[in-house]
Amino acid sequence: GKDGGPSDGVPHQRILAPDDPAARPVLHLAEPGSDLTEAVRHCFDLATEPPLRTVLFSESPDHHTVLLLLHHIAGDGASTTPLTRDLAT
Question: pTM score, two decimals?
Fold first, then answer.
């Protein structure tokens, strides 16, 4: 329905208002010693979370890795190429 809930099994798009808390990026802080491989295996629940997830791994005070997970429903090769280019600059 219009509230983003089930639509009787019919695929639908949920568009969030910019001021909706669910539209804000969420940064998950990885536990010390967490495995990047395990984080990559995150299974999205599209009914309850956005199709984008960021995880920050802090190996030391001056060495960090940001993992950006994008569900295939939200991006493909054509969209990830400019995204990675933008992140690199």
Answer: 0.64
Q: Cβ–Cβ contacts within 10 Å for residue 33, how many?
A: 7
Q: How many residues does the chain have?
A: 89
Parallel, antiparallel, or unpaired for β 52-60 and 63-70?
antiparallel
Write out the two tokens for 85.
């280019």
Contact 55, 69 (CB under 8 A): yes
By the 8 A CB rule, do 67 and 55 touch?
yes
SS3 call for 88: helix
Domain boundaries, the chain: 21-88
Query: pLDDT of 65-84, one tens digit each?
Result: 888 888 988 888 888 889 88
